[in-house]
């Protein structure tokens, strides 16, 4: 069973940047696609970004495209989410998740296609 631990959340002003990290335990990290999701108060959890097992492919939600960058280090068993030009609408709890396969599921990056989840890290963007 893979355990995921996120870090890097906090309070940042609008227009600022922050980098989230997700450290994974277990050998399956290196053969698994990884994703980031977020959940704002009163809203459903939504897909943010994902990366294939080898980092060759990435996907982003339209709302973060051009501002967020996902990357991974398979030596350090860590996936990152670099977030720039943050807005108050980015305020949410951010969750790291391990996909059930190495690449994007044919049905997409739906949360049901992710088998392990971290505990989440809070990002608050002030205006």
What does this structure look like?
The chain has 127 residues and is mostly beta strands. Helices cover 0% and strands 47% of the residues. Strands 2, 4, 5, 6, 9, 10 and 11 form a seven-stranded mixed beta sheet that branches. It has a four-stranded antiparallel beta sheet with strand order 1-3-8-7, with no helix packed on it. Strand 7 (68-73) and strand 8 form a beta hairpin. The protein starts with a strand and ends with a strand.
Which regions contain 5 or more consecutive residues with pLDDT less than 50? Answer: none
Basic shape: globular
Distance between the termini: 40 Å
Question: In what range is the share of β-strand residues?
Answer: over 45%
SS-based structural class?
mainly beta
Number of strands: 11
Gyration radius, in Å: 13 Å
How many helices? 0
Helix content: under 10%
N-to-C SSE string, H for helix and E for strand: EEEEEEEEEEE
The major β-sheet equals:
7 strands, mixed
Q: State the oligomer.
A: single chain
Mean pLDDT, rounded to whole units? 96
Main features:
single chain, 127 residues, mainly beta, seven-stranded mixed sheet, four-stranded antiparallel sheet, 11 strands, globular
